[in-house]
Amino acid sequence: MKKRILYMAYILAIPLCWISCSDDDGKTVYSKEGAKTEIGRKITENSGFVGHLFKDTSYTLSAGVQACEIQCLSENGLATKLYIFEVALDTKGLTIAVSAPDNDDSKFGLQPMTLQAEAYESPTKHVLGAVNGDFFTSAGIPGGIFYRKGRGIKTVMGDEKTTFFAITKDKRAIIGSRDEFDHVKDRLWEAIGGRHRLLRNGQIEPQVNTQLEPRTCVGVTSANVVYLMVVDGRNFWNSNGMTFSDMSKVMRALGATDAINLDGGGSSTFVVCASRNNTPASFVVRNWPYDYGGQERAVANGLLIVKED
């Protein structure tokens, strides 16, 4: 009886083996070719992060502002979705501002980025896009510095991992660590805190944390171009996130010389203006925030791409 069972198992296994072997000829061939956007090309060719590019799309929000969305497999074979703003700050009428809940920085609080963007809108200032900003406490107190229109609302840097992104009074984008703050604090017009330096003078900073997470980061180039990037994570089939080192490589591939990590996890949010046909303008979230099945998390502050009339 045992011999008969083994014989039948052997007979059944033959077609399975043939199917498995024949399928090798039709397996997926991974490729970095086919980038349709300049941002997608830079990342796929120069970062060492992309193992296979599925698609990349870009759209212009205004003169000097491009948005790009990329779907790929990482070099480790993990699904990843990236969302990137490219902001040429030397463009006339274009700037980056720090947001606050209800556009009121007289007190700390929490509010989703779509509502912070909506609150900032005015007849002469139009928000084109936005990302979340600094880490924060449950009361909405930012972890790092917080400047708006030249006024230091919070000027304490925190521990040695604290970093900052700022727009100076002469409209230059700068990034710094705690040891650099005292040298530039009198020049700051808009500023926000972050954690972990990713790039310093074009060099990747060593990192201890190797966790894959949803992330938000900001990088600046020597040509006064700012890159704001959000990466979805914690969703195996959709997007697995990035490590700090991954973000460093992507920022450097885009041309950034300096970059820092902003708040991530469920806070990571990539917002674009959907319509100005109504008052106020309407805003949509393009990525998939981790909290509550894709719903926005209320955050303490963020970075707004603003076109001024």
UniProtKB/TrEMBL annotation:
Q: Which GO terms describe its molecular function?
A: hydrolase activity, acting on glycosyl bonds
Q: Which ranges of the sequence are coiled-coil? A: none
Decide whether keyword Hydrolase is in the record: yes
- Which Pfam families has this protein been placed in? NAGPA
Alphabetically sorted, this entry's keywords are: Glycosidase, Hydrolase
- Does the UniProt entry include the keyword Hydrolase? yes
Limits of the Phosphodiester glycosidase domain? 127-305
Organism's domain of life?
Bacteria
The protein's name is Phosphodiester glycosidase family protein
Q: Identify the species of origin.
A: Prevotella illustrans
